[in-house]
Every structure is written in C-alpha cells, then in structure tokens.
Design brief:
This protein is mainly α. Helix content is 48%, strand content 12%. It has eleven helices and nine strands. A hairpin with a 2-residue loop joins β5 and β6. The relative contact order is 0.16.
C-alpha cells in the first residue's frame, strides 16, 4: 500500500478545498515523492529535485534561450554537487536505497576483466536518468490522462463502475498522449528505413508518438478508445534494450492515482481559464504546465483498492 498511501496523503491536502492544481498538487509530487524515497533523498527536498530535473531536460526541448540555458546549467551543477555529497556519505554509511547501491556497485568492462567501481561520471549519469525518468514522464502521463477524462467525462463513471477498465485506460492514454514524443538513437550499422538510407553512426529521432498513431497497428488510431483491444501494444516506454526499466512503476503510480482519485472525488471539472490544457514548451516531452480543477467530494475517507497491484 506504499504508493496508495502517498496518493491518499496528497489528496488529503486538498480534498476539503474543493479545488486544486492537479499538476502541482498530485501529478508532480506523486512520482517525485516515490523517486525521492527510492533514491534515499529526504521528502522535504522533492521540490528541489523537481527543479533540478526540469533543468536537466529543458535545454533538450529546444525552447530555452541563452540565459535560460545558463541557469539550467547552474542547476545541473548544483544537483551534481548534492549527489556527489550523498554518494560520499553512502560510501561510508550505506542505507537501504538506490544511491547506496550505486555507491557500492561493481562492474566489469569486459567479461574476463577485473571488477571496478563506477566512476563519478557514470554515477552522475545514472542519477540524472533515474531522477528525470523517475518523475518527469510519469508526471506528464498522469496529467495527460486526466485531461483525456475531462474531455470525455462520461468515461469517469464507467471506470468507477468497472475498475478493470482503468488498466486499459492507462494503456490507451499512454498511446494517445505519449509523454515522450521522441528520443535520439544512434544507428549501429548501415540500414534503410522507408526507402531512406541511414548510414552507420547517424543520429535518429525515434518518434514514439508517431508510432503510437500507426494505422497499420492501431485501427482508427486518431480515436481515444478505452475499450481498444491492443492498447498495450504502444511504444510509450520504448522497446528492446532501451525499454524503460521504470515502466512497471509508472503504470502502478498511474493506476493508484486514477483508482483513488475517481473513488474519492466526483464531478471533476476544469476551471475555465485561458491556460486550460496548456502544455510545457518542449520538442520531445508532452505534458501540461497546470491543470486547475474543481470537484465535489465523493468519499472523504482514504481509499485502498482491493486489487491495488497493476
């Protein structure tokens, strides 16, 4: 019930207000809290983690000017200095967390070689990926999922009546509103795709969002359908050796969030503003900047679904 407890804790903070900014009151702090706990970072630093994570990703989105890029670089250095300090502490006094595991990890550069510790560059790179991958994409997926429901409010009652639909809703929302639009890959050999020659070493933008609207795979792909039989065939988490290692965690966080939210809140609706469904500027991430809601209380008590495992 760990993730369900986090979700209930967050809803408890705003349920009596009858309103919230869903992105900043639940969609952001849920995965940030979970990844902070797993890394071994105190929860009071989750907003700092979010700021660092945004700084790590923003320049890659293509919408930062020189001053903003410089500020992002300063934030990244600050994050690296923080993690270097924690890694040093865990090296001498390990705890039951991921940073301790990384500080004591051993690898081989080749099967017959000697073991060695990860160097600081490798450690910082892994922590960068764990931090950004552990919160940004799930935040976007949860926010986009609720946006889809707000645009189709009749689905909320269907999912309340039959919680089994929530799993397929999650897969369909990941397909339809893919949180990572594309990522860069390197061609490891000469190849051809769609009649286009791709030389070895070329950088390729793999468009997950485009693949998830492929009519050859998904019938009527431009329609959002929570009854879609092959919804889980999407590539929102990548594929093969680059398949997201946090996919199961992201799905569980989404399932817990929507199951508990729909049980405890009713008549969920947007506050009419000029920024309703406004997305964060980015060429490779798709997520909302804010999502102001009003709602009625359906069940004030905390809720732990019987079938809580995704």
């Amino acid at each position: 019930n760990y993730i369900e407890t986090v979700v209930n804790d967050l809803i408890d903070k705003f349920i009596d207000e009858g309103k919230c900014d869903f992105m900043w009151d639940l969609s952001v702090p849920l995965p940030c809290t979970v990844i902070a706990d797993q890394l071994g970072v105190p929860r009071e630093k989750i907003w700092q983690l979010k700021q660092w994570s945004d700084a790590m990703l923003a320049p890659g989105g293509g919408f930062t000017d020189e001053a903003q890029a410089l500020e992002c670089a300063k934030q990244v250095v600050e994050a690296q200095q923080f993690f270097a300090g924690v890694l040093g502490e865990r090296k001498h006094e390990p705890k039951d967390d991921i940073i301790s595991d990384l500080a004591h990890a051993k690898v081989k550069d080749d099967p017959d070689g000697a073991e060695r510790e990860l160097d600081m560059f490798e450690l910082q790179d892994l922590l960068d990926q764990l931090l950004t991958g552990g919160n940004e994409t799930t935040t976007n997926a949860i926010g986009s999922g609720l946006m889809l429901l707000l645009q189709r409010p009749e689905l909320m009652d269907r999912m309340r009546s039959d919680q089994k639909l929530i799993r397929n809703f999650i897969e369909e929302s990941l397909r339809y509103e893919t949180p990572v639009l594309h990522l860069w890959r390197a061609a490891v050999e000469d190849t051809e795709l769609g009649g286009v020659a791709i030389p070895k070493g070329s950088s390729i933008a793999v468009g997950y969002a485009s693949a998830n609207r492929d009519e050859a795979v998904f019938d009527d792909s431009e329609t959002f359908d929570i009854d879609r039989k092959k919804a889980g065939a999407h590539l929102a988490f990548g594929s093969g050796p680059h398949h997201c290692p946090g996919a199961a965690l992201a799905r569980q966080e989404m399932y817990s969030a929507f199951t508990i939210l729909l049980h405890r809140l009713d008549n969920i609706r947007t506050v009419d503003t000029n920024e309703t469904f406004k997305h964060v500027p980015s060429s490779f991430l798709r997520g909302l900047s804010n999502l102001h809601l009003e709602f009625d209380v359906r069940h004030r008590d905390r809720y732990f679904p019987n079938a809580s495992v995704y």
